[in-house]
Amino acid sequence: MVGGRLGSRLLVHAILIVGIAVMLTPIWLAFVVSTRPGSDFMTGDFPLWPGPDFVKNYRTALIDGQPGAGLQPVGHMLWNSLVMALVIAAGKIAISFISAFAIAWFRFPFRVAAFWIIFITLMLPVEVRILPTFAVTASLGLLNSYAGLTIPIIASATATFLFRQVFMTIPDELTEAARIDGAGPLRFLVDMVVPLSRTNVAALFIILFIYGWNQYLWPLLVTTEPGYETVVMGIQRLAQSASEGSPYWHLVMTTAILAMLPPIAIVLSMRKLFVRGLVETEK
Amino acid sequence: MQAKRVTFGGTALPLALLAPQLAVTVVFFVWPAVQAVITSFQREDAFGLKTEFVGLENFRDLWADPLYLESFGTTMIFSAAVAVSALVVGLLLAVLVDRVSRGAEIYSALLIWPYAVAPALAAILWAFLLNPSIGPLTRLLRVLGIAWNYNVDGTQALILIVFASAWKQVSYNFLFFLAGLQSIPRSLLEAASIDAAGPWRQFRTIVFPLLAPTTFFLIVVNVVYAFFDTFGVVHATTGGGPGQSTTLLVYKVWKDGFIGLNLGSSSAQSVVLLVIVIALTAVQFRFLERRINY
Questions:
Q1: Of residues B109, B125, B273, nearest to A128 (C-beta)
Q2: Using a CB-CB distance cutoff of 8 angstroms, which residues of chain B are in contact with residue A168?
């Protein structure tokens, strides 16, 4: 594995370049389609390079819509996705952080029971309890609201365990010092624990933002009106009409690019932090 | 589960700090799950006026339902295909990136893109590439003499959702395999080189055994992903069809409950899925504990 001749090194690079090209083909072609008029790929050779309609298509998808075809502008869907992703990420971090703080630094009755109740959420993905969860959410009047999109999936065992692990590495001397200085638990939380966990919070935020942005089943259940649709689940109706023959694949792909851009941008711009977050949450 | 050695006193404060998490968990996780279990033992009459306790009858019906058994089989084939292909490709790419001295950073940066793409979006991209009339890959297949139309051919529809689901998971596996490879001490490989072991032999006798824990962990994660995170893939593209050919269990539980309004059967299906998640989580944690002890 170490060393190797020039020929074999070139071969490795060649295989990698081909492999990466194959992996990125779906995204590249979606981008190509999003820059061309809808008629460009109905007949003839499939274009492999971007065309002239970049501005026009993105304008249509974002602002104007295609009223004749029943295509609403997707600007509000992107906004809903953003709100949902931010609230889920921030909310999961906030409630898991204080839960983990309570479990790590206090001894109180029901402590172990609380831990197990949180643990159980790991074993209950939405998919296995679709109907009753929908029923509870509906009976609390949370359908078609940001609260309904976010609160029911905001509990997180993984985040709680991660923070607990981080907290266990904070030396006891710090707690003792804080107590000698007369700091209460909340003071200690804000002045010591939060600053010490900043990197972990940031890494986790990236993972949870992507998790929230990419939700599909839950928004599908909770939104029965178009006003609260998120882009990842809303695009499905566009794609449905396009695959039934309507000539709007270019707008579907424009929307798809818009929908994948925020998570891809975050992953690429904070790659080190992202990889760290990924490895940590799965431990 | 230990606490810190130095702790704070008081009971009210920790309970208040735990309250939001516990409230959400109990209201939106535990209570609905209990409901699902209860409903799975009940049956509603045709008008939804009264429910009666029917014991295990819903489960017996599932067991006798050829459509459910078929969906079970489809899910097994699908999960195996997704996990194996995503693991093999992810491992291959990771081994290659680990071998190059120049460009490794750029290669990894490019390879993690698909991870950020939602499963449903990935499915729409692949459904476009393989669209029966205008898809670029469909045209390529036509040149090769393959008639491709996933709207009528069940096997092709299954291949489509396997591709869409595995594509995104390759990135994930790649990252974990690469981290695993980079933690293997170089001295081991150098020693093998000196003993004139070729690259394949090095991989088989040194690298692969050392990657075993990573591989095992990834198998569980990939199977969980294939079982539970692929609803969007099916819903956004094939809608379970043609016929029943891509009706995965998570899709069926939604369809029977939400579209078919068959509460008893849908709940019984939920309970079956519940047992599967619990089993998979148990396996994962047993394994994790063992890894920590090493």
A1: B273
A2: 4
Residue B145 in any domain: the answer is: yes
CB proximity B170 to A under 8 Å: yes
B23 plus B117 within the same structural domain? no
Of B24, B270, B273, which has the smallest distance from its Cβ to A151's Cβ?
B24
CA distance A121 to chain B (A): 6
| Rounded CA separation B206/B216 (Å) | 16
Q: Residue A130: closest CA among chain B residues belongs to which residue?
A: B254
For chain A, say whether B32 makes contact (Cβ under 8 Å): yes
Q: What is the reported pLDDT for B125?
A: 93
C-beta atoms of A279 and B176 within 8 A: yes
Domain range spanning residue B31?
A: 12-53
Q: Are B38 and B131 members of one domain?
A: no
For A146, A216, B32, B122, B152, the CA distances from A83, given in Å and listed in that order, are 8, 15, 26, 22, 39
Length of chain A in residues, anyone? 283
**pLDDT for the residue numbered B288:** 61
> Is any Cβ of chain A less than 8 angstroms from the Cβ of B109?
yes
| DSSP secondary structure of B226-280 | HHHS-HHHHHHTTTT-STTTT--HHHHHHIIIIIS--HHHHHHHHHHHHHHHHHH
Please give the DSSP secondary-structure letter assigned to residue B101. S
Q: Where along chain A do its domains lie?
A: 76-222
Rounded percentage of chain B residues whose pLDDT exceeds 70: 95
Q: Do A106 and B228 touch (CB under 8 A)?
A: no
Q: What value does the mean pLDDT take over residues B211-218?
A: 86
Co-location of B193 and B73 in the same domain: yes
CATH topology of domain A76-222: MetI-like fold (1.10.3720)
Q: Which residues of B touch A158 (CB under 8 A)?
A: none
Judge if B133 and B21 occupy the same domain: no
Asked whether residue B42 falls in the same domain as residue B145, the answer is no
Of A115, A123, A135, the CB nearest to B1: A115
**Average pLDDT for runs of 10 along chain A of length 283:** 68 92 93 85 79 85 74 85 95 94 89 86 81 89 90 88 89 89 89 90 90 92 86 84 76 91 90 80 61
Same domain, yes or no: B265 and B244: yes
**What residues are paired with B8 via a beta bridge?**
A106
Which tokens sit at B85? 């292909």
Q: What pLDDT score does A2 carry? A: 46
Q: Which of A41, A125, A253 sits opposite B277 (nearest CB)?
A: A125
Q: How many domains does chain B have?
A: 2
